Sequence to fold (494 residues):
Amino acid sequence: MLCLVGTGFVSGRCIYLKKTKFASVEILNKKFFIPAVMNFIDGLALQHTTMDYSRYNRLRFVVSELLKRRVLGAYPGTDGKITVDVYVADTYIEISIQDKGVPMWMEISPVGDFVNVTDEKNLYNYMIEFMTDGFGLEKLGKDGQRIYVRMNLLNKIGFKEPEPYQSIEVLDTNIFIREVKTHEDAIEAIRCIYSEYKYSYSYERFYYIESFMRAIKEKEIMSFLAVNEHGQTAGHFALVFSSDLKNMPEISAVVTRKEFRGLGLFAKFMDYAIKFGEKNSFRALMGQPVAFHTLSQKAFIKSGFTATAVLLSYIGSDIESEYNKNKERLDLFASVKILDESAGCVVYVPKEIKEFTQKVFEKMNYNYTVAENASIGDATEISIETYSTLKTTKILVKSAAEDLEEILKDAIKDSIRGKNEMIELAVSMNAPSSEYAYEVAKKCGFVFSGLLPGSETADYFIMQMMIGTDCNYDRLVVTGEYEDLKNEILLING
Fold:
């Protein structure tokens, strides 16, 4: 799956790469439409992507089976519409099937390594999981359900290893920051990231020049180099944008070359990002300092960020970095700074976290109103993503209805079968059903982790579940406001 992780002192949230809807076709649930739709997809996929035939044939087989199941089973005894969309991103193709028919949630789930070949459902799910590079389901409320499968267009084997940095003598320490706009600067940024993380950084666009430049052009990322007067690169950071956190980019991909450490470069990055955000009318900024590095925690607080969440075991243990020599999952803190003084929200706050939420919002100088007319939604709107490289499941709830408990229990079972290690649940507090979602999540075994407010998309509260182990707060190395945050969350969770 596609996810942004790891930044040395600061890490990143999983995000979706920007994708373009290449084509869309709507059909009735008639079997004779299936070959025509598949021929339509064939022409698009093979003419407009870099995928080879063998990989595409695997994807095609899965898509045709999914489409056949929906055509034959979505609307038993009646007519209905099915929409097939083809999306293309720099590193993957995605094909989705959406309809308002009989739910397919119970038919698809990760199965892990073991498959009982006498069980048709397990065999079917094994086929989906191991013949594609990713799949997911979204419950869209009144818009029905969406099932999608993805296949990567590029393999990591195709990476050209950047020339590694050699130790240098620092010729001057007069550092200035410039935005990456040229191929030459992009190459330098890639070398900087590679020097710290090799190929363990999951945001693959950072390893392909053309893809990197296109991400900049399409405003998915903004990349910055720190350079001295002699042209020596001192470090790099990026602002990464996400539709789940609209107009609240994350400060990420932060790397400081060893020779330039101790010069306050991290604080310089923070200051530059804030001024840049104010100039470009960002609503807020978000960052995630690693929970063992107190200097970065202090730098965020000094720059006016508010500690909002403790994200336990957030980064996978296989990240290659001198900051993860023990090869353990890394813990993070979420931190937010409001840049737009007029920004505000109306939130439905679960009673158990009401005092905590008000305290955080007031520290942030966030204009908020707590609504009192909480209610259960008419339909659950939810998306579930599995990130196999991180061994993590991410669940985002926009609205919660009575079937939420069943959906969460199924997601937990799927995560266990898929050998994932952590589940993150993000719930929109702007929906009247957030109180209900909180109580259902607690019942299912999730614990409160904090807030992620400030974006134009939604203000979220975050809950987590560690699979096979308890939440471990003891290993956190914290200071100041981050220690206060940890203690308040421990009180809420009892």
